[in-house]
Design a protein that fits this description.
- The protein has strands at about 5, 10-15, 20-25, 35-40, 45-50, 55-60, 65-70, 75-80, 90-95, 105-110.
- By secondary structure, the protein is mainly β.
- The strands form two sheets. The protein has a six-stranded mixed beta sheet with strand order 2-10-9-4-5-6, with no helix packed on it. Strands 1-3-8-7 form a four-stranded antiparallel beta sheet, with no helix packed on it.
Length: about 110
C-alpha cells in the first residue's frame, strides 16, 4: 500500500500560478503510471495529467500548454499550473493511473476572476 500527501494548493487570481506537490510513502513508481486528478462539485475525479516512468506525458485538453507534470523518480511528483483559469478550481489528488491506492486528502485550488 502506498499513501499520498498532496500540498501546494491555494487561492489565486486568473492568470496566476501554483505548484502542487505529491509525496508518496514509497517509490513513486509502483508499477503504474502516475497522474493528477481534479474533483469539482457535482462531478467525479477526472485525470488532468499523466506521466510514465519514461517521462511521457499526457494532458487533458483543457490544461494543455498550461500545466506540466514531473517527478523526481523517487517519491515526489509535481504539477506546475500556469495561466490559471476559474475552471481549474477544484480539489487536486495524485494517484496511480488507473487509480489503485486510497485517495489522499487532496489539495484545494481556487481560482478567482
Amino acid at each position: 500500500q502506498v499513501t499520498y500527501v498532496e500540498s501546494g494548493g491555494g487561492l489565486v487570481q486568473t492568470g496566476g500560478s501554483l505548484r502542487l506537490t505529491c509525496t508518496a510513502s514509497g517509490d513513486i513508481w509502483s508499477g503504474y503510471f502516475m497522474g493528477w486528478y481534479r474533483q469539482t462539485p457535482g462531478s467525479g475525479r477526472n485525470m488532468v495529467a499523466r506521466i510514465t516512468p519514461t517521462g511521457k506525458t499526457v494532458y487533458a485538453d483543457s490544461v494543455k500548454g498550461r500545466f506540466t507534470i514531473s517527478t523526481n523518480d523517487a517519491d515526489t511528483m509535481w504539477l506546475q499550473m500556469n495561466n490559471l483559469e476559474v475552471e481549474d478550481s477544484g480539489v487536486y489528488y495524485c494517484n496511480t493511473v488507473p487509480q489503485v491506492y486510497d485517495w489522499g486528502q487532496g489539495t484545494q485550488v481556487t481560482v478567482s476572476s
